[in-house]
């Protein structure tokens, strides 16, 4: 294969770990390539994107705040990206720019590493209903998870996620207080809000008191690596799942789209954890 030209657009992107991750993947796959960071100011987005699309680049990732704004520049969308309404991966293939969303699917791949083989009948509680939650909810229901309840501060936002259901999906919309009352019925709890996202933010969105002994508690926040929610899950002897693995698995899926190569995660998760902490 010729040199693979990749990158990330967003604002800001300076501290992104994606170049490191994709260089590890290229090394493993034996592919020569580059992965550049493109920090684009919102006022010049249209101009910069048009130039990037014609620059000979093979594909790129899209992060905040451009996951929706990129869509009109692409020729086609993968059906799940279209449903989710956000794109984090673009690939140039057969003369067309195609958009995908690997965030949610990557997250579910990561989560499955800590779940038993057949976990699709387990009860899932999702906390939050923002952009990240949309992708995760869609990936959960396409992976066959049948019971996925959603608790969010703003009820209407949670209700919008119901458009992403599959016919067999059962979803109840809850307040945080209701979720807390019923916490013992869930096998998997996924936190997707921005609460707890800075080391100084010692908030926890729901109490986990009374949690099922074998429950899995997952937090997509990866900085700090151990949020208050995860610390409290540990105290309850739950299995905990850290957010940085989502970063790696969404990248693994994006790299498959760009290169057609399967990547083995192996020790990369531990090495990434060292970079995050
Ligand atoms: P992202 O793309 O990271 O998911 P987002 O789309 O802005 O970001 O969504 C943020 C999520 O965090 C939402 O579920 C939001 O709740 P609302 O829908 O009610 O806004 C949630 N969130 C943010 N700050 C919160 C807070 N202080 N308390 C509770 N929920 C909060």
UniProtKB/TrEMBL annotation:
Top EC category: oxidoreductase
Residues the record lists as binding NADP(+): 128-132, 152-157, 220, 243
Tagged with keyword Oxidoreductase: yes
Domain Quinate/shikimate 5-dehydrogenase/glutamyl-tRNA reductase span(s) in chain numbering: 116-205
Reported function: Involved in the biosynthesis of the chorismate, which leads to the biosynthesis of aromatic amino acids. Catalyzes the reversible NADPH linked reduction of 3-dehydroshikimate (DHSA) to yield shikimate (SA).
Protein family per UniProt: Belongs to the shikimate dehydrogenase family.
Protein name stated in the entry: Shikimate dehydrogenase (NADP(+))
Lineage: Bacteria, Bacillati, Bacillota, Bacilli, Bacillales
Gene that this sequence comes from: aroE
């Amino acid at each position: 294969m010729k040199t693979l030209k990749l990158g990330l657009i967003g604002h800001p992107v300076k501290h992104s770990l994606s170049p490191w991750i994709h260089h590890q993947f290229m090394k493993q796959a034996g592919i020569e390539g580059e992965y550049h960071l493109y920090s684009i100011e919102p006022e010049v987005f249209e101009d910069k994107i048009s130039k990037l699309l014609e620059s000979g680049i093979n594909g790129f990732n899209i992060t905040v705040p451009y996951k929706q704004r990129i869509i009109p520049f692409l020729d086609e969308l993968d059906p799940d990206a279209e449903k989710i309404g956000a794109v984090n991966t673009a690939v140039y293939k057969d003369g067309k720019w195609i958009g995908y969303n690997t965030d949610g699917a990557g997250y579910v791949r990561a989560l499955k590493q800590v779940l038993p083989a057949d976990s699709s009948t387990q009860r899932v509680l999702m906390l939050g209903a923002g952009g990240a939650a949309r992708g995760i909810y869609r990936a959960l229901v396409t992976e066959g998870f049948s019971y996925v309840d959603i608790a969010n501060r703003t009820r209407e936002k949670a209700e919008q996620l119901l458009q992403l259901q599959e016919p067999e999906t059962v979803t109840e919309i809850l307040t945080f207080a209701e979720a807390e009352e019923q916490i013992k019925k869930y096998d998997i709890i996924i936190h997707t809000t921005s609460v707890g996202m800075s080391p100084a933010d010692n908030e926890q969105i729901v109490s986990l008191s009374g949690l099922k002994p074998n429950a899995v508690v997952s937090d997509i926040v990866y900085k700090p690596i151990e949020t208050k929610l995860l610390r409290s899950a540990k105290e309850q002897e739950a299995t905990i799942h850290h957010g940085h693995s989502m970063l790696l698995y969404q990248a693994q899926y994006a790299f498959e789209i760009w290169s057609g190569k399967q990547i083995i995660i192996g020790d990369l998760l531990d090495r990434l954890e060292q970079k995050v902490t």
